[in-house]
Amino acid sequence: SIQLKPDYYQDINTLGNTYSAKGQLDKSIDVNEKIIEDAFYGTPHFALSNMGVAYYNKKDYVQAERYFLEALKMNPDFINALAGLGTLYIDQGRYNEAVVKLGRAVRKDPKLGKLHFELGRAYRGQGDTVKARAEFAKAAELAPDTPLADEAQKELKKTP
User: Fold this and answer.
1) Can you tell me the distance from the alpha carbon of 61 to that of 63, in angstroms, rounded to the nearest whole number?
2) How far apart are CA 52 and CA 117, in angstroms?
3) HSE value, Cβ hemisphere, 13 Å, CA-based, for 44
4) d(CA 30, CA 65)
5) Can you tell me the distance from the alpha carbon of 58 to that of 107, in angstroms, rounded to the nearest whole number?
6) Distance between CA atoms of 101 and 106, rounded to whole angstroms?
7) Any residues with CB less than 8 A from the CB of 121 and at least 6 apart, and which?
8) How far apart are CA 89 and CA 102, in angstroms?
């Protein structure tokens, strides 16, 4: 479809996500860079957040944070960037910042189990096991019979 319509941004964005999912992170970055630079691309916060994900997966946390923050400048409520940044902050031990970002994401979309799971990890990092347990339980409730629910149950068992 991109060959037929080179400016079909939705499919270009999907191509970047596909490369990322396949672990072809440099190709994902290349695709996303091209559409970010295009003045006619109406939703660059998607590509910016995707860049954040690719750099996060490359373990280049400085670049990942930069792209997530750029996406949030364009759309402060963009859940993908809030979640990505929250997860990045957990990995860096920046639990207070993670709780802020993930808490905001959960308020925007309280039905996403993955957001509750990550918020539970952030609360546990802060040492707040009561809130952590509540978030892990909510994640399991929202995604029954899934690997996420299984993981949430494991975390509940590990969290006193």
Assistant:
1) 5
2) 20
3) 15
4) 18
5) 29
6) 9
7) 90, 98, 132, 155
8) 10
83-115 pLDDT tens trace: 999 999 999 999 999 999 999 999 999 999 999
Query: Could you tell me which of 120, 130, 61, 123 has the C-alpha nearest to residue 95?
Result: 123
Share of the chain above pLDDT 90, in %: 73
Longest pairwise C-alpha distance within the chain: 56
- The single-letter code of the amino acid at 19 is Y
Kindly tell me the burial class for residue 160, based on how many C-beta atoms sit within 10 Å of its own C-beta (0-12, 13-18, 19 or more): exposed
Tell me which residue has tokens 């999907």.
14
Say if residues 42 and 69 touch (Cβ distance below 8 Å): no
- Residue in the block written with tokens 């960037």: 81
To the nearest 10°, report the CA torsion of 153, 55, 105, 99: 70
**Tokens read off for 135:** 């978030």
Tokens 């859940």 correspond to what residue? 79
